[in-house]
Specification:
The chain is an alpha/beta fold. The chain is built from 13 helices and 11 strands. The model has no long low-confidence stretch (mean pLDDT about 95).
């Protein structure tokens, strides 16, 4: 059996859908905090069980009989996030999983100024010593971030963000496809190559692409980290969220998200989805 955690989240659910195209439903398990959100999966024959990283004992039954477990990184940072991810990895090993897969990031670095990256690096160390074969999926940066960064720019005509570096934006759909392949095959062992979109783009290039997509000028404006943080907080963003976005740009300036690798399109058998396609669907939503 293949068990997917976070099965009611965006990536976990997409992975499950891809799995159901490849293997019978009775060979797929969904681990979710609230099984009520996955009733439709249960109706399709998927084994749905409650599993909460914050309650390690709940993971024992959730992972029972699993040959492979996908641990989707906890949506929690700091010591609590590290504890939760470790608990999930250890529970998968204790359940007898033949391989533990984890959703890491191409920019995972212990010294990264972007808070999720040191956590991914630490979780990869846990995997190295977990006692079972593992695959750490070094995913590219989610392309769904870009429409959020552009949220104000669609209306003001200005993309006001700090100095940046190129980022290889990658869609959830492409990552779900390659994760399903990894769960059902033996392509990967250990750390994967960067699983990235087709090109690394700067904010200047993103603004130009957004201009073409929207049919009107969107100008990229460089602001300081301090001013950017203040603007975010002033518009209601929680301070931790503002700090995280500032860290994103600081890490991109170092080139942490710039890698572009052919592995993802090679495995998919098609080109990776370009950011332009993501923006094409985002513009109508922004203008609605």
């Amino acid at each position: 059996m293949i068990v997917v955690t976070g099965a009611s989240g965006q990536l976990g659910r997409a992975v499950l859908e891809r799995l159901l195209d490849r293997v019978p439903a009775e060979q797929v398990g969904a681990s979710v905090r609230d099984p009520g959100k996955a009733r439709d999966l249960a109706e399709r024959g998927v084994r749905v069980r409650r599993g909460d990283y914050a309650e390690p004992s709940s993971l024992v039954a959730s992972f029972e009989g699993a040959a492979r477990v996908l641990v989707v990184s906890a949506n929690t940072l700091g010591e609590e996030g590290l504890r939760q991810n470790r608990a999930a990895i250890e529970a998968a090993v204790a359940a007898g999983a033949e391989r533990v897969l984890y959703t890491s990031h191409a920019g995972a670095r212990p010294d990264s100024p972007f808070p999720p990256m040191p956590q991914h690096a630490a979780n990869e160390e846990v995997l190295r010593t977990c006692g079972a074969p593992f695959t750490s999926l070094r995913n590219g940066f989610y392309a769904s971030t870009v429409p959020r960064l552009l949220q104000g720019a669609w209306h003001t005509g200005e993309l006001r963000v700090p100095e940046d570096g190129p980022v290889a934006w990658t869609t959830h759909g492409d990552l779900a496809d390659v994760t399903a392949l990894a769960l059902t095959g033996d392509e990967f062992d250990g750390l994967t190559p960067p699983l990235t979109g087709p090109e690394a783009l700067t904010m200047e290039q993103v603004a130009a692409m957004a201009s073409e997509t929207a049919g009107r000028p969107i100008r990229r404006v460089v602001v300081s980290d301090t001013d950017y943080r203040a603007e975010l907080v002033g518009h209601g963003a929680p301070e931790p969220a503002a700090d995280m976005l500032v860290g994103l740009f600081a890490a991109s300036r170092r080139g942490d998200f710039a890698a572009v690798d052919p592995t993802l399109p090679r495995l998919l058998g098609r080109p990776a989805t370009p950011l332009r396609e993501v923006l094409a669907t985002a513009v109508p939503a922004a203008q609605a």
